[in-house]
Amino acid sequence: MDNITNVTVKPLDRGGKFVTPIRVDYEQDGKAKFWEAVRVSKSVSCVIFNVSRRKFVCVRQFRPAVYVNGADGIAWSEPDVANIGPEISAKSGVTWEFCGGICDKPGLSLEQICVEEVLEETGYAVKAESLVKIGTSRCHVGVAGEAQTVYYVEVTDDMRRGPGGGIDEEMIDVVELGVDEAKSMLGDDTVVAPTDFFWGLSWFFLNKNQA
């Protein structure tokens, strides 16, 4: 997963596959302003807790955006151009996450999309009605502001239908995380993870953990 080579960074052509860079012109209290932003799809994420063994089911994957931003100013020759070599460890771009994905399947509800993501990424078969909605928040409010809905679901060993790991060219490791280890991650700024990972753990310890 972390065998990353020949990394380059260049400007994005308009109309990328997953994001669209835009400029927003507007007036605020009569003063003309503008803002640079990107259009992205809304998404879902799911906190999975295996009650058979009292462990969280997490995923780990390489995130290029995390990796290149972690390079700071070392490799950047221009604001949108960089050549990143082996001096930046690829492990810095491997994140802890709960499974999830963008909502790019027309006609499916958020819950149905979440169910598909859980099966594809972790191998667990869950039902939409078993999902507990934690909430919806706005992500990357300075640049995107897309909505992400986070769910919680409990699974057992006998609900595992496959190895998970994603589909197509996805490279995802399924990793179990013990309750005590997960709690120790809260407030640890060395843990490379998105906001919804910490939100999901915090919600669990406030609402579900009775240990």
UniProtKB/TrEMBL annotation:
Its EC number(s): 3.6.1.45
Cofactors that this protein relies on: Mg(2+)
InterPro entries attached to this UniProt entry: NUDIX_hydrolase-like_dom_sf, NUDIX_hydrolase_dom
Annotated catalysed reactions: UDP-sugar + H2O = UMP + alpha-D-aldose 1-phosphate
The Nudix hydrolase domain, residue ranges: 39-205
Record keywords: Cytoplasm, Hydrolase, Magnesium
Name of the featured protein: Uridine diphosphate glucose pyrophosphatase NUDT14
GO CC terms in record: cytoplasm
Lineage: Eukaryota, Metazoa, Ecdysozoa, Arthropoda, Hexapoda
Keyword Cytoplasm: yes
Record carries keyword Nucleotide-binding: no
Coiled coil feature spans: none
Subunit and partners: Homodimer.
Cell compartments where the protein resides: Cytoplasm
Main location: cytoplasm
Function: Hydrolyzes UDP-glucose to glucose 1-phosphate and UMP and ADP-ribose to ribose 5-phosphate and AMP. The physiological substrate is probably UDP-glucose. Poor activity on other substrates such as ADP-glucose, CDP-glucose, GDP-glucose and GDP-mannose.
GO biological process, one term: ribose phosphate metabolic process
GO molecular function annotation: UDP-sugar diphosphatase activity
